[in-house]
Amino acid sequence: MTETETIAYDVVVLGAGPVGENVADRTRAAGLSTAVVESELVGGECSYWACMPSKALLRPAIARADARRVPGLGQSVQGPLDAAAVLAHRDYETSHWKDDGQVQWLEGVGADLYRGQGRLTGPRTVRVGDTVLTARHAVAVCTGSRAALPDLPGLADITPWTSREATSSQSVPGRLVVVGGGVVAVEMATAWQALGSRVTLLVRGKGLLPRMEPFAGELVAEALSEAGADVRTGTSVASVARADDGSVVVTTEGGERIETDEILFATGRAPRTDDIGLDTVGLEPGSWLDVDDSLRVTGTDWLYAVGDVNHRALLTHQGKYQARIAGAAIAARASGVPLLETDPWGAHAATADHHAVPQVVFTDPEAASVGLSLAEAEQAGHRVRAVDVDLASVAGAGLYADGYKGRARMVVDLEEEIVRGVTLVGPGVGELIHSATIAVAGRVPVSRLWHAVPSYPTISEVWLRLLEAYRG
Questions:
Q1: Contact 39, 144 (CB under 8 A)
Q2: How far is CA 221 from CA 84, 190, 252, 365, 372, in A?
Q3: CA-to-CA distance for 185 and 104, rounded, in angstroms?
């Protein structure tokens, strides 16, 4: 019979992805002893199956598209991508799915790593194998999310791609069906189309990127179609089956049959909370966890849920932001601070999750947004006005690419005279969104933005065009 070992820490972190790593970094910086539990690879989804590999696949596609639009250069880059080289670089960026470097970093901040499935067994207690970890101050759940697959006839028999397979495949499928219209769907459609797949995109809704301004999805869909992808909106999958030759047969609800070599379902995410012992502390296994702005789980004084698991913003950069807030809150409470800075924009409040969440979709063209869309602002009860500018009218855009196509929208609160949201679509706009994030998060008055002079000739001059259009 194996003897159980019990070890006490100030903080126990479940999950060693970017979020868990940052919680550990902040609590260790505050002098708290910290244990981190990881069942897979240290570095998490972002490092091995999401952000890093997907951008490694996308970067050559975007760079080639940009180069083709530059006079004097375009004719030199008309050939296909070197798929083997792209996949090899992707493998390099994922450290070949080995986490030695990330383990070294975690140990460098002074956190103790425990490998295995961590499960709560009661308040402030986590079991990993034959080891029981107790937390004097906090347990932070940072286990992230996984791809959610639909309940579809035949799905269990075909081994479909999810985001993990789409970012880690060692070969380029001749034909690829992508089901979904969100970020993962459009990014992977862009990447694999560029690498040589014949991509068919099946979208149940009316358009792509439904959480952004409508024009974002329209411009991305147009570009995908021009690149050779078959984009079909208003199309739902009824069933899938594996054919004798190994291909997948997709049947739509309209009765159409589509044959493909691989099928990617990018139809949503689910929290990875089904096997971490939530039931032992009165919470529902497999559920998203409700939190306050200090990321503490509702109804508890010791349990924190940080990153995807709280469903506030399923983005790595927002999860890391939350981790900094949670780490500061845990440290403050551990030191006996009687009143945390939980006012809006305080040190212990994840206020940006409500007001200034930025996102970049790395398609061609890129789509980037922060804050509220026009529809969201109106639904929230704000009296707003949307100002639109054709990005092709900006001098820097014409220099960036011949025939530049793009659009920008600024949503202005008419009562407070601040920017509630910004959406940019066009080549290279991903590098512009942080200036918009500062404007939204900082609640910078429009009158003050007028004095933030953009350099000429850059695409950033779109700010001047937006402000001019707003002033009339």
A1: no
A2: 27, 10, 20, 10, 22
A3: 34
Annotated binding site: which residue ranges? 55, 118, 143-145, 180-187, 268, 308
Strand 175-179 with 198-203, pairing = parallel
The confidence band for 2, taking pLDDT boundaries of 50, 70 and 90, is low
Spatial contact of 365 and 219, defined as CB atoms under 8 Å apart: yes
Question: The pTM is what?
Answer: 0.95
How deeply is 346 buried, as exposed, middle or buried, from its count of CB atoms within 10 A (0-12, 13-18, 19+)? middle
Point out the annotated binding site for FAD.
Answer: 55, 118, 143-145, 308
User: Which residues, other chains included, contact 50 with Cβ-Cβ below 8 Å and sequence gap of 6+?
Assistant: 163, 167, 316
Backbone angles phi, psi at 267, to 5 degrees: -120, 25
pLDDT digits (tens, 9 = 90+) for 42-68: 999 999 999 999 999 999 999 999 999
Structure tokens at 291: 């939190």
Beta pairing partners, 262: 176
334: number of Cβ within 10 Å: 17
**Known binding residues for NAD(+):** 180-187, 268
User: From CA 117, how far away is CA 128, in angstroms rounded?
Assistant: 6
Contact 281, 301 (CB under 8 A): no
What angle, rounded to 10 degrees, do the helices at 214-227 and 183-195 form? Answer: 20
Q: Which of 375, 361, 359 is nearest to 440 (CA)?
A: 359
Q: How many residues does the chain have?
A: 472
Find, among 463, 465, 462, the residue nearest to 452 by Cα. Answer: 463
> Which of 19-33, 181-195, 301-315, 334-348 has the lowest average pLDDT?
334-348
**CA–CA separation, 237 vs 253, rounded Å?**
6
Domains of the chain: 5-43+99-146+271-352 (3.50.50.60), 155-268 (3.50.50.60), 365-471 (3.30.390.30)
Q: State how far the alpha carbon of 466 is from the alpha carbons of 217, 240, 394, 422, in Å.
A: 21, 47, 11, 10
Helices (H), 337-461: 352-355, 374-379, 395-400, 433-441, 446-449
What is residue 211's DSSP assignment? T
For the chain, state the CA radius of gyration. Answer: 24
Tokens for 305, please give them. Answer: 């849920």
Q: What is the pLDDT of residues 296-323, one digit of tens each?
A: 999 999 999 999 999 999 999 999 999 9
What letter would DSSP give residue 438?
H
User: How do beta strands 131-141 and 5-14 pair?
Assistant: parallel
Confidence of residue 3 (pLDDT cuts 50, 70, 90): confident
